[in-house]
Specification:
The protein is an alpha+beta fold and 135 residues long. It has a six-stranded antiparallel sheet, with no helix packed on it. Strand 3 and strand 4 form a beta hairpin.
């Protein structure tokens, strides 16, 4: 039975009980399909919300943060002094408790104290760089 047959039967009246039974079955089927569709829609909305949250977290991880929020456990991070030209002064640095607490640029043979204003995590190195010993 099709939707137009059900509508026609309602408007004009059904000829017999079999038509009524078919119409009821069709309506119940339609209600079940609608419920499944709504459930699928709900699950898709949850997935979209989760992906949006993951994207926001990834974007936040790639934004410059105030140096006050940087890890102070020796983790190497990318730092910059925003008071200077944005393309100069970027350093890979780590915090040390020595010298009364200082940020050290470890990219040179002799670490030097730097005064960053902002930081962000270092990107994950490529897998093959680890295998070759580049890092």
């Amino acid at each position: 039975m099709k939707a137009k047959d059900v509508i026609k039967g309602i408007e004009e009246g059904f000829d017999d009980n079999e038509q009524i039974a078919d119409a009821v079955e069709w309506v119940e089927d339609a209600a079940n399909r609608l419920a499944e569709f709504e459930q699928d829609n709900h699950m898709q909305a949850i997935k979209i919300e989760k992906l949006q949250a993951e994207l926001a977290a990834l974007k936040a991880a790639q934004e410059w943060q105030p140096i006050e929020s940087a890890p102070k456990d020796g983790t190497r991070i990318l730092t910059i002094d925003a008071d200077f030209d944005p393309h100069e002064g970027a350093d890979v640095a780590r915090y040390t408790g020595a010298f009364g607490g200082a940020w050290l640029d470890n990219s040179k043979h002799i670490p030097k104290t730097i005064y960053p204003t902002h930081w962000m995590p270092l990107p994950t190195p490529p897998e093959n760089a680890k295998a070759r010993g580049d890092l």
